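Lecture notes, unit on protein representations.

Consider one protein chain, 348 amino acids long.
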Amino acid sequence: MQAVAAISQSALAHNLTVVHTHAPQAKVVSMVKSDAYGHHLDLITPLFAADMLAVSELSEARRLRPLTQKPILLLPGVFTEEDLQEAIQLNCHLVFHDLAQLAILISSKHPVKLWIKVDTGMRRLGIATQSLPDVLSQLDNHEHIQIKCIMSHFACADEPMHPKNIQQLDIFNQLDTKDFYRSMANSASIISRAKSHFDYVRPGIMLYGASPFTNIDEQLMPVMELSAPILSLKTIKAGETVGYGATWKASKDTRIAIIGIGYGDGYPRHAKNGTPVLINGALCALAGRVSMDLICVDIKQTSAKIGDRAILWGNVKLRVETVASYSQTIAYELLTGVSARVTFTQCA
């Protein structure tokens, strides 16, 4: 018996539909970087219904190509001739975000489909806004380069009222993008800022059923259900402690379940006492520190037996955002952090 991450195909399809509902006029680029946000590229087939897919590594494009013929957006672009040729063979659209990439693109003897990323305030990847006219003049008339889209990225989209969102959108709208497609909206701005949708939207976390905001979004369906078996049951006497550091003490005689999952599987080490765990339909409370292979849970809210499976997240009663909040982190980190020793399966 071991931990299992079950990936719901119907939830993936539903969440992609939610994207289309929010941005009906835009084409969709499914963000499947970081192994589909930890969900495994070979288990997310419903997302291939999008217009494009986006990855952060050429190795991910390699893995995707046997699974789908949809165009792949390679977010870091390329810096070597070898990578350029492979990306072209894999039918990748390349992101150009740094002037250091210019020479290798101009030297291409094969067709290149290019997205130009402009830094409107994130101060991460992207060319300076004042560099765009010169870059366009060098690339737009190149016989082998086809500029497909001008893109940028919000720094504070998960805070809809943050003034930087309007500032960045204004800067982007002032760019002379000619007749090229435009793209700026991630999950948060797809939901909260319709004026940022433009021609392509780039949903990420919402596809996997988690909200980009601090509040739960009931429109989205959890995709990854992480579960693990109960390995043992014990009664802890009043005054006794549980786990490393003796951080949890029984105020009265308490029945606990020892569950076969820990930080070695990707369950958060910093989950606090009281973090909810779903057992047989009831929300129970984490008791004691998370160890490498095990957690202990107070099961006074339910009855259970050895072999019953506890759900750690991925149910409408217990979403990953809730566990992230108890662990002082974000859903992105939990989903991408599930380890290789967890068995991944596909479910309807």
